[in-house]
């Protein structure tokens, strides 16, 4: 028995056309999403590579002066790490939405694309944090030690110019 025997042929054809159109829209959305994720992954890879290369040059440079005397670089790196955290959250939420969507399957590769970007954002976060820590530590090691010994933390703070 034909399960669509009771459906007029014009409605059956219309449903097939609607289903096919919907599937084409889903395929376009998948392609567009994968293209965007690929572009983001390429940008993130470049940023990680640049930050790591910059830190490697600093480490190899035997720098005798402070890199960030006014703290501006450290502040900028803190802001960048904060932004990277927001990007991670947006990607995590996007991945969750895609994983929950019935229009996508594992074979589409969209969840995998999000996973690649999430790992790269984690690497960028670590690279930026590592660079900031290297700069701050390097500069701290070049600071003049406070003279003498101190009987209390308050005395130490006063000696280094911190007044509570």
Notes on the protein architecture:
The protein has 4 helices and no strands. The mean pLDDT is 87. The chain is elongated and about 80 Å long. It is mostly helical and 164 residues long.
Query: Order of SSEs, N→C?
Result: HHHH
How much strand content do the residues show? under 5%
If you average the pLDDT, what whole number results?
A: 87
Poorly predicted runs of 5 or more residues: none
Number of helices: 4
Q: State the oligomer.
A: single chain
- Tell me the helix content: over 70%
Envelope shape: elongated
Distance between the termini: 89 Å
**What's the count of strands?**
0
Radius of gyration: 28 Å
- Overall structural class, as computed from helix and strand content, comes to mainly alpha
The biggest sheet amounts to:
none
Which labels suit this protein?
164 residues; mainly alpha; 4 helices; 74% helix; 0% strand
Question: What layout of secondary structure does this protein have?
Answer:
Elements: H1 9-60, H2 72-100, H3 110-142, H4 153-159
Helix pairs in contact: 1-3, 2-3
